[in-house]
Amino acid sequence: MNRPLGVTLLAILHVLQAILALIIGLVLIALGAYLLPFLVGMPRFARHPGLLGIIGGIAIVMALLYLLLSYGLWTGKGWAWTISLILAGLGIIISLVGLILRSAVGAIITLILDALIIYYLTRINVKAYFGKAQPLAYPSTSQPNQQPPQMNNSDTPKFCVNCGAPAATGVKFCSYCGSKLG
Q: Which residues have a Cβ under 8 Å from the Cβ of 166 and sit 6 or more positions away?
């Protein structure tokens, strides 16, 4: 199954977040280890070398987690779909709290983006890519060893090869993902 474009963009976004978190982590560790004596304008608690090192280490761990998540999105792992939904949900909650405490344009933008991510990840073709789409159930037979009834070619249901959605007879394009039907 082809990777949907939006999933590719999310994976690339997480790689960029990983690079940014890695740079921030390394800078904080360097500040804590080498440059701290030169930073006289910072508050006293922020000049503690151990604190900057811990925050830098957390940023580096976050970078590694973002890389792992981008790998999972790129390769269609179900756990990456679940984690992305959880992170987007947490982002919505944090944005709402930010809007309640103080009105900020960034919180509104984050709220909208996280809502769009949740909407996108719950589309049938995206869920199918991650193996989260519900398989179509055939009617059960009354006897366990009985074969399901055979259908002739005109009764065979058609499905999109890209997203797995059912397709009506005579339709040229999938109504869910827009792929050309064979």
A: 136, 157, 158, 159, 160
Domain-by-domain residue ranges, the chain?
1-76
What separation in angstroms does the CA of 112 have from each of 15, 90, 105, 106, 159? 21, 13, 11, 10, 33
> Which residues does residue 158 pair with via DSSP β-bridges, in sequence order?
167
Phi, psi of 61 (to 5 degrees): -60, -40
Other beta carbons within 10 Å of 140: 9
| C-alpha torsion sign, points 55, 59, 65, 68 | negative
| 61 vs 38: which has the higher pLDDT | 61
Question: For position 154, what pLDDT does the model report?
Answer: 53
DSSP 173: B
Q: Which two tokens stand for residue 43?
A: 């508050």
61-100 pLDDT, tens digit per residue, is 999 999 999 999 999 999 999 999 999 999 999 999 988 8
Nearest to 13, CA basis, from 85, 74, 56: 74
